[in-house]
From TrEMBL:
One of its GO terms (cellular component) is membrane. Signal peptide: none annotated. It is found in: Membrane. Pfam families: Sugar_tr. This is Major facilitator superfamily (MFS) profile domain-containing protein. Residues 1-379 form the Major facilitator superfamily (MFS) profile domain. SUPFAM superfamilies: MFS general substrate transporter. It comes from Zingiber officinale. The keyword Ion transport does not apply. It comes from the Eukaryota. One of its GO terms (molecular function) is myo-inositol:proton symporter activity. Its main location: membrane. It is a multi-pass membrane protein.
Length: 413
């Protein structure tokens, strides 16, 4: 999260020819640091145990765990590895069929993979990757302004991750997820409403304003004839062959403006008359509400859905299956990330920004139902109790748990 915020800072402050090359080049620095640190990373104690290098494994565990816990961890690891050997293999050799035949693993995968998929499908990385674009769609024309305002969302995301450290063991994983998703649903509802208002109340196209720029009038606007009287900024921006842009009125950007061909020459002409030039979104009096919606989205998402899916995935699987199950969940997360990131701009062009955020909102409601029904509370439970809980667990629509005692009662029921 901190690295993402740093990347936004670099994007904002790098103002020189070839900026994109500098931004890509700077990314090599943390990669090199990580490479050096990886050389110092100790080997997995589990792998060492599997290779009969018991003393090395125990030495690493003694560095990681407090003195009063290390003997328990050594014993638990030894028992888990022996159980794997008795079953005829290690986690690396386990196939998908075997995983799905094991009830506890199957239920754990449903919860773990489901959380990772929903983490992406509620739209977080569209907000993080495309926040400057979203800011422009909300009516802020300047690239500099869009980048500056996107720093707010990245900063809130980093701050929310820190807040999660404080809340995760006080509120529990499940409760934090539920509160997070409720806030995400409300935020996406606000964003959808704001962008609907922005689209439906965009400034009109003025024929006299457009005529001021001579031969640079948008061809689609010219060919519309008498129908051009109904044109507004949004219709101008959706014109194509060639693409067109909106040059706002100089006195008030909400007054009728000009619909012109979109290129650097026309942009400079527009700016030369102290006007704002729009190619993504239109001037709107509701733009600041969109920023509030984005901020609320990050504030609610980051402490809950931003961090809890990774924590649950580290706790929910039986120890002998944790490696392969964690890999499956992480793969599901990145595939979902790819789908959402690649489809966002296409969706906004095809159905509009308002409907796109509404779709994310509906998915968030589905995610909330999924958490209530399928995700158990793992707070404070040793792995053995989590395994027993998954063995006996049925779908239950319960919002709150009184504590770990309730989970133990439920798991033995």
């Amino acid at each position: 999260m901190m690295m993402m915020m740093l990347s936004f800072f670099l994007s904002f402050f790098f103002q020189a020819p070839g900026t994109w090359r500098w931004m890509l080049g700077v990314a090599a620095i943390p990669a090199m640091v990580q490479f050096v640190l990886m050389l110092l990373l100790p080997e997995s104690p589990r792998w060492l145990y599997r290779k009969r290098r018991v003393e090395e494994a125990e030495a690493i565990l003694r560095k990681i765990y407090p003195t009063n816990e290390v003997e328990y961890e050594i014993r638990a690891l030894k028992e888990s590895v022996e159980a794997e050997i008795e079953e005829g293999g290690s986690s690396e050799k386990i196939n998908i069929g075997k995983l799905l035949k094991t009830k506890t693993v199957r239920r754990g995968l449903v919860a773990g993979v489901g959380l990772q998929v929903f983490q992406q499908f509620v739209g977080i990385n569209t907000v993080m990757y495309y926040s400057p674009t979203i800011v422009q769609l909300a009516g802020f024309a300047s690239n500099q302004t869009a980048l500056a305002l996107s720093l707010v969302t990245s900063g809130l995301n980093a701050l929310g991750s820190i807040v999660s450290i404080y809340l995760i063991d006080r509120t529990g994983r499940r409760r934090l997820l539920i509160v997070s998703l409720c806030g995400v649903v409300l935020s996406l509802g606000l964003l959808s409403t704001v962008f609907h208002k922005t689209t439906s109340s965009s400034p009109a196209i003025g024929r006299q304003e457009t005529a001021r720029f001579g031969g640079y009038t948008c061809p689609a606007y010219d060919s519309a004839g008498s129908g051009s009287s109904s044109w507004d900024c949004m219709k101008c921006l959706t014109a194509s062959s060639p693409d067109c842009g909106f040059c706002a009125a100089s006195a008030d950007k909400l007054n009728p403006g000009a619909c012109l061909i979109s290129n650097s020459t026309v942009r400079d002409l527009c700016h030369g008359e102290s006007r704002l030039w729009y190619t993504r979104g239109c001037p709107s009096r509701y733009g600041w509400l969109a920023l509030i919606g984005l901020a609320l989205y990050i504030i609610f998402f980051s402490p809950g859905m931003g961090t809890v899916p990774w924590i649950v995935n580290s706790e929910i699987y039986p120890l002998r299956f944790r490696g392969v199950c964690g890999g499956i969940a992480a793969t599901a997360n990145w595939i979902s990330n790819l789908i959402v990131a690649q489809s966002f701009l296409s969706l906004t062009e095809a159905i509009g920004t308002s409907w796109t955020f509404l779709i994310f909102g509906v998915i968030s409601v589905v995610a909330l139902v999924f958490v209530i029904a399928c995700v158990p509370e793992t707070k404070g439970l040793p792995i053995e109790e989590v395994e027993k809980m998954l063995e006996h667990r049925a779908l239950r629509f319960r919002l709150w748990k009184k504590g770990n005692d309730d989970e133990r009662k439920n798991s033995s029921a």
